[in-house]
């Protein structure tokens, strides 16, 4: 309310000034400058609120994960999405690039978060060759994140080969799910 | 414990063979098993018959597992021969003709007066030529019975084929437990199954040190696939290669000084050489592909490995310094897991055909590829016995993957143990003696 009346007051003053024959330039210059400041302020407030909300969402999404026989406690977040791969391939598919963009945007908001990309494979093929393939999948995912602005120091990689399938079934559907790069949070 | 047995377990050659003769050329692509009669063994003095029966059973099982014999045991003899025990005279050998055997093995057991040691005696006879072949005696403390009988079986194999058997060898492998895998060891005959790691982690690709005292393997204990060493009794776990990324699929050079392995130091898997203490990593492969599963030639000059540099995984061979790379396999689009025969002439590998994996062998010059398995399941991870006459591998033919053993010509395929499965990555030890 007070803002509106303030603007109205200014407008009246302007008209008065024009009427009194004051130079136009001064007036025109002053009006947008005030508006800009206001708009910027409002935008900053909105962003802060959004960030606060997102932060809450991200923190709420974190689930601690301890694995027997593997040291350390890490976290998983449903907001950091998995990507998937074709059989015996490690290139990022176009649709998955958008997913990684989303993951990267989140990481850019939280500068303290460090992640590890896990490269996984389906059960077909040998233990060792799948470890090599998982290594490649983890690294191509990491490289993509780095290429769109995520600092390389924040992203480590690990290959689990075919040792940790998401779906233990022995069919195409399970295999497609298991050929994935999964993100865990090693520091928040 | 083992060393203790070996010192005390002595044997005596009672009669040397007059002439070395090979009854069975096992290098031929096919061979007919030698029918061998195992006459009832005699328990001398106060030896409990149960002890004698146990020794007899271990030997019968060993000779059956070798794949070289058609064993005619007591139960399969005609009644007058069934009860005949002890060592016969050469002049009476013709009485054994109705047994249907070509070779006769007769034995005796004796408990020493101290009750803590035994003596085993066996004699081999040729029933066709009606002559004595060899006789040997083994002595040792009671717990060394298995080992003594295995040596006896090795000797029988030597007399019949010109080369000792592998009954005193062990096989290391992984077993799924919970969400991880643990390292296990079993004897050649599937006895003495022992769990080596108990850490709940993912433990992978065991490899015996050439002296048979240690096993190198990969574990995720520290949230990275690092290389570890452990004594065969499960003691002295030591981490010795822990570069970020892969440190997997170790293969010891025959002299034990170097280990070839897959490392992820360059952001992808390459074949590296490290010292036996984990130092001086040297990159051997220079392609842009994924490189995997190194295996040494028995002369220590060459390394076979997997590379997908051509677009699909294939077997390649390079000199130990990474030079002179050549491609070995051209058939099929997925060939992995090479294992170089200790005889040097062939390489076993796992190839995909009609959507399933099968074991093949191929000459080191790419000649004479042979398919060894044809079952409905997948067959992977071949590993040669130290004499190059058997191949251990994992197979899903009965459900969950299990370790199987076959003769190197593909015959006589049998599961290693009677466990439920979840087994993979067999690695065959040297001979223990």
What key phrases describe this protein's structure?
heterodimer; A: 188 residues; alpha+beta; 60s Ribosomal Protein L30, Chain: A; 2 domains; 4-stranded mixed β-sheet; two-stranded antiparallel ribbon; 6 strands; B: 433 residues; mainly beta; Rossmann fold; Neuraminidase; 7-stranded mixed β-sheet; 4-stranded antiparallel β-sheet; 4 helices
Please provide a written account of the structure:
The complex is a heterodimer of chains A (188) and B (433). Chain A has 188 residues and is an alpha+beta fold. Chain A has two domains: 2-54, no CATH class; 80-187, OmpA-like domain (60s Ribosomal Protein L30, Chain: A). In chain A, 54% of the residues lie in helices and 20% in strands. Chain A is built from five helices and six strands. Chain A has helices spanning 2-20, 24-61, 94-109, 127-147, 172-178; strands spanning 62-67, 70-77, 83-84, 114-120, 155-161, 180-187. In chain A, the strands form two sheets. Chain A has a four-stranded mixed sheet with strand order 3-6-4-5. In chain A, strands 1-2 form a two-stranded antiparallel ribbon. In chain A, a hairpin with a 2-residue loop joins strand 1 (62-67) and strand 2. Chain B has 433 residues and is mostly beta strands. Chain B folds into two domains: 2-161, TolB, N-terminal domain (Rossmann fold); 170-428, 6 Propeller (Neuraminidase), CATH 2.120.10. In chain B, 11% of the residues lie in helices and 41% in strands. Chain B is built from four helices and 31 strands. In chain B, the strands form seven sheets. In chain B, strands 1, 2, 3, 4, 5, 6 and 7 form a seven-stranded mixed sheet that branches. In chain B, strands 10-9-8-31 form a four-stranded antiparallel sheet, with no helix packed on it. In chain B, helix 2 (49-66) crosses helix 4. The radius of gyration of chain B is 23 Å and the shape is elongated. Chain B starts with a helix and ends in a 5-residue tail after the last strand. Residues 1-7 of chain B have low confidence and may be disordered. Chains A and B meet through strand 2, helix 4 and strand 5 of A and strand 19 of B.
